[in-house]
Structure formats: structure tokens, C-alpha cells
Amino acid sequence: MRFLEPWESLARGNPFIRSEPAPGYDYMNFTWEDVPVTIWDARPIKEKFNVDEHGFAFFTDAENPQSGLVDILRNNNKAEIEGLYYPCIERLMTELTGAERVIIFDHTLRKRDPGRSKLDNPTGKEQPATMVHCDQSANGALRRLRQNIGPDESVNTLLKSRVQMFNIWRPLVDRVVDWPLALMDYHSLSLDDVHSTDLWKGEYELRGQTMSFTHNPNQKWWYLSDHQVNETTVIKIWDSDKKTSAKFCAHAAFEHPDTPLDAPPRESIEVRCIVIHEPTDPAANA
């Protein structure tokens, strides 16, 4: 799997990636490091995993999307996806979390192009994401929250309730055997391996902040073999509740060594959302 190179933040500052770099500015200030890891099959114990204990969980979707909806998703029509699929995700996340409110702020479709090398991913949105990452740091999550609430709403007021961010990942092929999704058990992670990564544009226009990860042999990885269309992987990205066990989940696609040569290229959709719970005791999230 592909990790951030060994990194000393105190000496080198944050890793960064710069889109559309201005002349004389680096695209990135680090290199990726490919490390072989063992990835365990979660299928036999699929029900064991919990977003608050492990950072991820697997669910069979009660709505079981019909082929017509899958075809719409594969066609990547933004208006149809927002009108037909977003409500499914809102219902799913309300049921799974008991949230008072679900705000979906974007989605990404991916279809692996066998004609490209596994490192060739011009916009970061076509091929499976092979770098171990989490979509938001704490600072990045707060920035996202500000961007997606109403003009009369206050982040500080919302944070009196529990606020979470999740990615909901679903394959768009019958079963995934090509470049499946790997997820790290939060309890196997050392916080020394976590590095906030700045996303710049041009010179120094800050567009967000994610997290990259260095390798540690104690990390434990899982994937769901033969992931079906009617199954979703729910990935925790951020949680305002400081007492929860798993704060986030590192994840990445990986090249399975047993993938058949004739396996269909992986296709998937990932929806990103903010989940806001009912107000609680102010001391609960302190």
C-alpha cells in the first residue's frame, strides 16, 4: 500500500499537495512509499465492525438499489444522483446514526481505466485512490462544516451537539475483486503516524486539509471480499465527540494479488456527508 514517506513535522512542517501550482512552486513536498502489508478479509466477521469502535462498518442496504438506479449512478448525471441517490443515503445515515440532520456535500464516482498506469490519476477522481488517507483533518472538517451550513447558523452552536462526517462507499459492479477498498482498524493506529496534509492551489490559496499516514507494522487492515452492490461501507472521517473510541478511519484502494485477469474494472460511488445529532449535555463533548 502507498504511505507517506517517514515524516518529521516539527522539522519539515506539514506535507502539502498543490493543485495548479504557480510557476516556481512545488506540486508536493513529499514522496509516497510503497509498503507490502497484510490485509484481512472482514467477510466472515462482517457484523463485528462498528464505526465508533473501529472507524468503519459494513451494512447491507435495506433499499437494495435496483439495476435502474445503478445505471443512473454509472452514467454520472449529477442532478439525477442528487435527486435519486442522495435521499437514499440520508435515510441510511439517519437510521444508522439516529442523527437529527444529514447534510450531503459531495460525491465522487470512480471507474478504473486499465489503460492508465496505477499511478496515473490526473484529477484524483478517475482511478481508485491508492494513497492511504483520511479525507479531513480536524481543521479541514471544521472548514467543511462552515462551508455547508446555513448563513444564520453558527459552528460553535452546532458543536454543542455531536457532529460527525462520514463517507458512504458503494461498488457499482456486481462484486468487487479489482482494487478493493482497505480500511485500517483505528485501535491499531499510532497518532505518531498521522500527518495533517495541506491542500493548496496556485501559490498559497488553502483549499482544505486532509490526513496522510506513515507506515507502522502494528497497523491492522481489513477489506470486504466480493463487496456487493447492495452493501455499503461506512467510513468515519471526523467526530466532534472527544470521548468516542475511533475518531476517524485511514483507507485506500489496494491491488489484490489474486485478482483474475478478466475481472471487471472497479467502479464505485462515494458520498460524503455531515451528520448532526440532537443537542446534548454541553459537557458530553468536552
UniProtKB/TrEMBL annotation:
Leader sequence segment: none
Domain of life per record: Eukaryota
GO MF annotations in UniProt: oxidoreductase activity
Family from the record: Belongs to the asaB hydroxylase/desaturase family.
Protein name: Methyltransferase
Organism expressing this protein natively: Oidiodendron maius (strain Zn)
